[in-house]
Each structure stands twice: as C-alpha cells, then as structure tokens.
C-alpha cells in the first residue's frame, strides 16, 4: 500500500471514529411520549409517584398489578377492603372489565382514576361526560382543589395538557373536588367567577358502598409536574383514599412494553418449555442422521400468488418496521373522512356538533358513538406525536363504526 492510500485510509478511519464518538457522547433528546408506567423516568412517566406511595400511605400494603384489570380483581384478597389506582392518558375498559370494576367498588372499595377519557361503558354507568377544549398552542391551565382543609393554591400545567373537564355529571351521586381553568389570577376561581374559564376536573362519585375518584388531568401525576412543584396537588388528591391496601395498575398504560412473541407463553410454562427444548433437540438429531437424500426430489409447482395480499403485507410490514404511527393515523383519518364525504355527502372540512348529528342520522349509528369517534379524530389530528396505542384505539373505533 502506497503512502497516499495510507493517508486516505487514515482520514476515513478518523472520520468514522469521530462520527461514532459523537453519536455516543451527544445527549439523547428528551422523550415526551405519554407512558404513566411505574418504571419510566421520562417526563410523562409515573416513577416518582409510584415510589412515593409508601410515604403517602404509610403502613399500607401496596401491590403492583401487571395483568389485566379483570384478572387482578378476581385474584385479590376479598376479605379486606382496598383501593385501586389507574392512571393513563386514555382508559378503555371493555364491558367485562367495567362490570368487574363496578362490582369491586359496589362492595365497599374505592377506585382512583386519572385519565382524559374513561371509556364508554364506565362513563355511561356513572352518567358522566368529558369534554376537551383543544387550542392551537399549548396554553397554561391551572388546577386546584375545593376542600377548605387544603391550601388555596393553584397548580399550573403548561405542557402536554388540554382543558379536559366534566361536561355532565350525576348531581345526585357526584361531589366536585377540584377544577381546571384558564384564569391567570393567582387565587382560585370563586363560585361567582366566569364559568367559561373553568370546569370540574376532579369528582367523587358514590357507587354502592364505595366511591370512584375521577380526575381528567392525568398529566398532573407524572414525573414532570411533580418535580415542577405540583407534588402537593397529587398528595391532596390521593388523600381522599382511605387507609387501605392499595393496588397500582401497571397494565393499562400507554408506555407498557408488550411482548407479542408466540413463544412467550411456552417459555413461561416449565413443562412446555422442556417439551420445546426436547423437541428441538430431537429434530436436530433427526436432521443429523437423516440428512442423506433417499429419493429424487419431487418438483414443487408453485401456485399463483395473490399479489394484492403480498402488497398489503409489504406495506403493513413497512409501517411496522418504521413505527411511523403518526403517518399511519393521518392516512387512516383521511381515508375515513373521504368515505364520509363519498357515502354520506357530508362536508368534513370542519368537524363539529352538527357534523356528528348529521353523520349519526345518515349512518344510523348512535350519536354518542359518533361523537366519541369524531372527538378522537380531532384529538389525534391536533396531537403532534402518536403511539401504537393511539393506532389501536383509532382502528377499534373505526371498525366499530363500520359494523
């Protein structure tokens, strides 16, 4: 190798090493995705809250559940009363889970839920409705509590939070515990203040022998806002729960890591795991001793392939590989809106209350289901970053509408 080639090779290696070192030492961008898991230390995780639970509930047993809500409530100790905490950006319980949770509270237990949406079944049973006011920019909102035993303090939320509040509640069984507002004053809004600037975001709903504590601002319970000085709001909000054993739900989370490998169940069962290993060892021995070909290979006639199916699989695999959930959601929303314009002859340029009523009357679908779907579409269109859970929720709503 001549001198010139050595110089070029040395420069190339120096540049390559520089790039590698730069990638290693450069700070990672802050992850603002919603997670709400007990192990995530990102801004919208719940690591701090989970580790502060022993201080908030001294002397009480705290259980972490990483399986479905139904299984957790079935396997719990029914001889003693307890409280169940669910915190996530969206809470979508199926009918079976909802009935189990309702029975749990009716028997004298309490449930604390912080979410911007409580699911159709639970909301219908408790006779509540939630409304979110979206804006072009992230406005600072304030939350505060109504209990006179707590300090008269407003807690600002200035990132990742919209004005989500209860638009309708069952006044016979519901007590308002806190409000959310756009008011910029330092003192809490009084009962005579402008109602357009505030709405109830924290309520207590009596159900049977127990209570539901519902909060529409789950972001207030995350690491970011607890470190920003809002830890007292969290402590006061959770203080309504009695001194009972506590269940922390770590399953209904946007940031939960889902292992969808078909081998997961097999490797988690001792008998199946050893059967799998023995089967693989036997197959290997068979291949070693029977590898010699005993007859002429019979030619395989390949059937005609359905190229449309392969194309769909390829496109689906591409989206799954790149994890571009935002682009996928945009395409699904645009395709759905085009169907509305083509099939029901509706103008989708502005989605509002009239659009929901017209679509419900022309499609024959319940108005509440249509509102939920359009509200989710508006929410996702205004959301900058999307998760896999957003795609699943949107797809579920769209399939439910098309049935």
TrEMBL record:
Matches recorded under InterPro entries: DUF4350
| UniProt source species | Arenibacter algicola
Where do transmembrane segments lie in this chain? 274-291
UniProt keyword terms in alphabetical order: Membrane, Transmembrane, Transmembrane helix
Protein name per the record: DUF4350 domain-containing protein
User: Residues in domain DUF4350?
Assistant: 39-236
Q: What phylogenetic lineage does the species belong to?
A: Bacteria, Pseudomonadati, Bacteroidota, Flavobacteriia, Flavobacteriales
